[in-house]
Design a protein that fits this description.
8 helices
Length: about 260
């Protein structure tokens, strides 16, 4: 009977709420807001990067290498054809291994001197000379030519690479041997350090010897691969001579 006493016109919904009020924020709106904020941060970051790049170009042109004092433009992604990028990346990595090995070789020679090696002074002097001379010359005389060779596909670059990289392979064998007083912390010197109980010097010599071996064997492997590519592309000495006569030697140290 209680049901007959209820007001049939009574609403079960409250009329206190204003139907024209903005709806309460939903989870979707919060997610959209976060997305907009993230996009805004990304735009600010990109704008900052573009400003930094513009300032770099204003000061140094397009040059970006070495990073601490840009002298040349070096970008495997932008300048090397896609099919050849893995090879040039590996060669660049081997050059970095060479650079690290030269530094470790010098540190090992310092330890040889401290350990009382009779030729420690000569070894240290030689190792410093190698770091100063071999590091930049190896980049300019065999890495940069093959970089340009794959970028421009011109014969002369390949012959420059074959000539100087061949000498570098012989130099690597020489450094692996480790003849005393030559500035090499190679095999002979390392064995002598272990034999005399100088373990720290021996370990550094081992690392240097492994470094010389890795970059030498890696270069020998890619040397053969590049030789095959050079033959398949039809590069000849006559073609290299014609390019040299046409462009001049200066062109082979520039881009374009």
């Amino acid at each position: 009977m209680a049901d007959y006493n209820q007001n049939p016109f009574a609403s079960t919904h409250s009329l206190d709420a204003n139907p024209f009020d903005d709806p309460a924020p939903t989870q979707d709106k919060t997610a959209r807001q976060r997305d907009l904020e993230q996009r805004e941060r990304d735009l600010q970051r990109r704008e900052q990067e573009l400003n930094q790049r513009a300032e770099h170009i204003r000061k140094h042109g397009r040059n970006n290498w070495p990073p601490f004092f840009p002298l040349i433009f070096h970008s495997i992604r932008e300048e090397i054809p896609e099919a050849s990028r893995p090879l040039i990346n590996r060669l660049y990595q081997l050059w970095l291994v060479l650079l690290a090995t030269l530094i470790i070789n010098m540190i090992a020679c310092i330890f040889f001197l401290v350990a009382g090696s009779s030729d420690g002074g000569k070894d240290l002097g030689g190792s410093i000379g190698y770091l100063i001379i071999i590091a930049p010359l190896s980049f300019l005389l065999w890495y940069r030519p093959i970089y340009n060779g794959y970028m421009k596909e011109q014969a002369l670059y390949y012959y420059i690479f074959f000539f100087f990289c061949g000498f570098h392979l012989l130099y690597s064998i020489y450094m692996v041997i480790g003849i005393p007083s030559t500035g090499s912390a190679g095999l002979i010197q390392t064995i002598q350090m272990y034999a005399s109980g100088h373990w720290a010097a021996g370990i550094l010599g081992t690392v240097a010897t492994v470094g010389w071996s890795v970059q030498g064997l890696g270069l020998a492997y890619y040397y053969r691969q590049i030789w095959s590519h050079h033959n398949a592309a039809g590069h000849t000495v006559d073609k290299a001579k014609a390019e040299l006569a046409s462009h001049g030697a200066k062109a082979y140290f520039t881009r374009g």
